[in-house]
Amino acid sequence: MYKKQKKSAGILLYRKSGQGLQVFLVHPGGPYWENKDDGAWSIPKGEFHEGEEPLDAARREFHEETGSEVSGQFIELTPLTQPSGKVVYAWAVEGDIDPASITSNSFSMQWPPKSGKWIKCPEVDKGGWFTIEQARKKLLRGQRGFLDELQRRVIP
């Protein structure tokens, strides 16, 4: 049986500072990610379905995961296929957000697994600004290509 390919859409928020180009990343909530740092962060993103415009989904997901709206001149980046097979569509946009201000939606999960106990977790437990070099270490491996394209397209 043919299985539909999962797709996500997200926003790579960036700013130019005295430290150079910086990007805003989020850390996933929940006990699985609690003690993971390098290679665990992501752009704010989430799945979208047939008929939903990917940029609309990316903006919705940014709001759900940070509590903030994002607007500006969106730069469509080349979609990346993740190790899981999921395709991530992303847009870069210049902006600013205070990491201390983010509020995320939440989800329920059984923890510990098969325990019958359910806990509520934020989808995102924190956000932060990182230089491109820092972001290469923090970001999930499958999303690092967005950093290369951002640098090529934003820095003359």
CA radius of gyration: 16 Å
Tell me the number of strands: 9
The CATH class is identified as Alpha Beta
CATH architecture: Alpha-Beta Complex
Q: What about the largest sheet? A: 7 strands, mixed
The count of domains is 1
* Relative helix content: 10-25%
Q: Please state the structural category.
A: alpha+beta
Could you name the CATH topology? Nucleoside Triphosphate Pyrophosphohydrolase
Strand and helix order: EEEHEEEEEEHH
Q: Can you identify the CATH superfamily? A: Nucleoside Triphosphate Pyrophosphohydrolase
Please tally the helical runs, counting DSSP H or I stretches of 4 or more residues.
Answer: 3
Proportion of residues in extended strands: 25-35%
| Rounded mean pLDDT score | 94
Could you give the distance between the termini?
A: 47 Å
The coarse overall form would be globular
State the gist of this model.
By secondary structure, the chain is an alpha+beta fold.
Describe this structure in words.
The mean pLDDT is 94. The radius of gyration is 16 Å and the shape is globular. The strands form two sheets. Strands 1, 2, 3, 4, 5, 6 and 9 form a seven-stranded mixed β-sheet that branches. Strands 7-8 form a two-stranded antiparallel ribbon. The longest helix is centred in the middle third of the chain and has 13 residues. The chain has one domain: Nucleoside Triphosphate Pyrophosphohydrolase (Alpha-Beta Complex), CATH 3.90.79. It has 156 residues and is an alpha+beta fold. A hairpin with a 7-residue loop joins strand 7 and strand 8. 19% of the residues lie in helices and 34% in strands.
